[in-house]
Amino acid sequence: xxxxxxxxxxxxxxxxxxxxxxxxxxxxxxxxxxxxxxxxxxxxxxxxxxxxxxxxxxxxxxxxxxxxxxxxxxxxxxxxxxxxxxxxxxxxxxxxxxxxxxxxxxxxxxxxxxxxxxxxxxxxxxxxxxxxxxxxxxxxxxxxxxxxxxxxxxxxxxxxxxxxxxxxxxxxxxxxxxxxxxxxxxxxxxxxxxxxxxxxxxxxxxxxxxxxxxxxxxxxxxxxxxxxxxxxxxxxxxxxxxxxxxxxxxxxxxxxxxxxxxxxxxxxxxxxxxxxxxxxxxxxxxxxxxxxxxxxxxxxxxxxxxxxxxxxxxxxxxxxxxxxxxxxxxxxxxxxxxxxxxxxxxxxxxxxxxxxxxxxxxxxxxxxxxxxxxxxxxxxxxxxxxxxxxxxxxxxxxxxxxxxxxxxxxxxxxxxxxxxxxxxxxxxxxxxxxxxxxxxxxxxxxxxxxxxxxx
Length: 455
Ligand code: TYD
Ligand code: MG
Known about the structure:
The protein has 455 residues and is α/β, with parallel strands linked by helices. It is 26% helix and 25% strand. The structure holds thymidine-5'-diphosphate (TYD) and magnesium ion (MG).
């Protein structure tokens, strides 16, 4: 009998080694190597995909027909947008996200909202009763959504061959196992094999398959990187579990742009789409508060107006505190240094707290000017005019720098009823300012902006 061969696989990145090693040479993680049996390629896995099962000869690219209309409309504009305009038949979509962020809710909501499309929702994590309870919460009845609580891949494929669904949802890929593989559930070999088989199923039957994938502690989709290579589209569902806003980001898409993003709000009765995010991200002003500044940023291709709140107060203990939510604290420290050195604000004995409203995380430098203005406003306790907003980067010399896509940012601010926007003077060259229904104020230095704002 041939000796069975085993190899050690890194459970984080999928690298392998003939011997056990403590630290993965490829991704640097410790203690991630697990011994798994090496499978000889079976006849089925060696098979090459021939479209609908038929052998094909090369065709002229112009003769290949396609139909954009074939995409399945998910019934959600936000989800359609991130998918590049709907689900492409035969595609494999992976949705990753932290536990409890709402992946199951998003997919269940989508499947029960597709009226004329026969969907099969397979869950390896919840029982049918639990899924039904969730559907009750969401409050939609569907005649075309079928549920299956199963973790055996063979069994799932048997069912799909029998039922022939128009869309298959697997929640989650890490709970599936294939009998052919003698490795534990959720291991690299299992995840890879199951994804491979599902991919073949998707391409052969032209049925779209959507997979839920867990993420590991770094936020990467657990399982090998090959998983991301195998699928057509990778969506990341992000947000803070304790806050209500969720962002669905496209990180890979063979059928659309990767700079797309959808925004949802988690409600009592499921996820609600947020089609005009700027309106909800800016809180209605109760009073004229100091320390609140509005910045125009871009998330993907969408302009967003975001509220920056800061609180500057005298430090009572030795070292002043600097803390941020939704922003890199290093960026704040840099801007504080610029304010101290170039404007002369005595911030070194002040605690500074900074908050991006709505639970968003931003790293767009165009927010710099709104951050500086909000800190100045809190320090001096003078509110920023309610109808003013900002969109510019601040350099180390206190200079106001240009940002990309300024036209979209200005238009969005105008659309939301702002009356003036502060931008860099280097940004408006060749721009027809008259076409915007907003007063565009262009400056070159931080001190000029403050003078104009607070006089
Ligand atoms: P879930 O979809 O189970 O997350 P995941 O599959 O990503 O682990 O979402 C779980 C959270 O969503 C849970 O904390 C409860 C909340 N939730 C609501 O607030 N409203 C709802 O209608 C539903 C179904 C869930
Ligand atoms: Mg879940």
